[in-house]
Amino acid sequence: MESVKRPASASSQEPRALLQLDQLPDVGPRTIRALVESFGTAEGALSAPSRLFTQVAGSAAARARGDREVARVVDEALERAGRLGMRLLTWSDSAYPEALLRLDDPPPVLFLRGRAELLGEGGVSVVGSRRCTARAKDLARRLGRALGRAGVPVVSGMALGVDGAAHRGALEAGGVTVAVVGRGADAAYPSSHRRLFEDIVEHGLVVSEFLPGTLPLPFHFPRRNRIMAALSESVVVVEAGARSGALITVKHALDVGLDVWAVPGPIDTRACDGSNQLLADGALPLVAIERFVEGVGGVAGVRSGAEAGVETEGAGNPEETPGRSERTRLAEPERRLLRSLDAGPLHVDELAAAAGLDVPLALALLVRLELDGAVEQMPGFHFRAA
Predict the structure, then answer these.
(1) CA distance linking residue 385 with residue 283, whole number of Å
(2) Taking a C-beta distance cutoff of 8 angstroms, is the pair 381, 347 a contact?
(3) Nearest CA to 145 among 296, 263, 308?
(4) What pLDDT score was predicted for residue 43?
(5) DSSP calls for 179-193
(6) Strand partners, 125
(7) Contact 376/369 with Cβ under 8 angstroms?
(8) Mean of the pLDDT values across residues 167-195?
(9) Residue with the larger pLDDT of the pair 12 and 73
(10) CB burial of residue 368 (10 Å; 0-12, 13-18, 19+)
């Protein structure tokens, strides 16, 4: 892929100047980029003639350039960043990921807490709804664990629901995770994720484009989603409603040419409307966690839970197939579905009838069994035992 032009290095005051520009009214990353292209540096933009500055950034921003309150807010935030051991990275630094520079509106400055070296390692963005189903939260956690065991960084937004579960799964497996947050990197949001936030700072990386002390305003979260996409090699939507913010991450992922995967969900569950529509529009179906992780991790095989030193419920005879050894801990409807498959592949309608289930419920359970590696889906909604 052709490299992109990195803004020229400037003095040690350039980060402060970039942040001052970002605090001006009607100025965002696109305008800051235009100002730097016009005047060479952010410092040059701050000292440029008012008429020329106004042509690029507007009159409100031009009038606010000399506001002492703007300078005070930036200086206090930088002091707080220093106390918390944050690393500042501007778009002219060599460690700033080139993938971010390919965005139309790359963040001029990033605040990093934790293992800054993880910033350029790529990974998989795992996203989904905040108000997700218990099924989705469980899948996100297991996907995070599998990626963590395989050494693939998990990238997400530390929100409630799918995001938090994916982060936790990666940490539980001894893996690494990157949280891109929609507020300053000095505190957790939501507050209920304070312990998770502290664990990520210790073992992973927290990334923010916002000054320390910045509150989690609603319009910050769509902005952080573009960073999540650009820091990833692919994106997985575990579960998303028709208007989920996770779909914004998908849009950014497609803009930068990433593969988008989605977990199939029950067609009569509104929480899955958005993710199922992605599949209808051509997203890749994630139907087996370990198979997916093997592909994105570039490894011959992902270690089992026992090999990775994490718990494996109900472990049976290692010579048995995974589906059969796990039957003793499945719910009764799932066991009935698996028993029905002993005779060979069957259509979902036949399986539902044999197990005494409604077709939507049977399909949802079969997808779960497929993700667990117990069944395989064949063309035309036929299933067979794995």
Answers:
(1) 25
(2) yes
(3) 308
(4) 94
(5) EE-SS-TTS-SSGGG
(6) 155, 235
(7) no
(8) 96
(9) 73
(10) middle
